[in-house]
User: Fold this.
Amino acid sequence: MLPLIVDTDTGSDDAVALLLAAASGLGDVRAVTTVAGNVPLATGTRNALISLQMAGRADIPVHPGCECPMSRTLSTAQQVHGDDGMGDIGLPEPERAAQPEHAVDVLLDYPRRHPGELTLVTLGPLTNLAVALLRDRDLIGRYRHVYCMAGAADMHGNISATAEFNVWADPEAARVVLESATPDQVTWIGWDVSRKDAVMTPADQLWLEQLGTPMATFAHRVNRTVAEWARDVTGLSGYDLPDPVAMAVALRPELVLEQEQAHVDVALGDETRGQLIIDRRRSAPAPNLTLVRRVNERGFKQLLFDTCALEGDR
Assistant:
């Protein structure tokens, strides 16, 4: 199994990604760190605890992190994920509490104790990782690899015309990460991948619902408000799952069908805030990132269905 640390702003799609990480049998989750993003920090931490409990892994420690972006006011995505970030379906409180150690300390400490062993998967704004990098510029090299659900490589946005939410929420943090990244160490899986290869069509949603296990029912129900938002805002044929498809790439890299290495920066100005600036010219600076562009949709969905079919709530 792949040793993992997962950094998340746990909304409904993050919750499904945590199921994949904790219950698929492919990941060995050592810790979960939380950051403000989809929802305020306390809500996201609660949701992470609930999700791990649903996966049968309430033993995995959860560590709260940064409560706001590095230099901006927090803007959440509760209009997408519901006030509670989980579709407002009335989930009970988790049985366990979060740990006192701060997420940034966890991101720094674990790879120092286990250099080259751990894979980091980030599912929310990059604030925790950026703050950690400001304390240790060599941090990324201490991880086996870093996968980020971040950006939109085709400049087709979901929070603005050209930006994806995680990068838009804290673009300064994204830039800090990009300044430390190299394409052999850091891979971003953007909303363009989710929009193309991770849309849960009505047929997929019905299949998930009819599995009837606690995890499948949970995964289906928490995305209730996301389905409404996808219908009304993005016009997709169902709700998409950006964080789960990013997690799937980390767990099963063979799912990647297309990727590229490029030099990537991020726009900070108001009009283009959070837009990726991808330089593909021959004269471009050296690549600093691997960008996944397409994944095997059937393989991703099979991993999702196989995981949710398990009786994880124990």
About this structure: The chain has a mean pLDDT of 95. DSSP finds 14 helices and eleven strands in the chain.
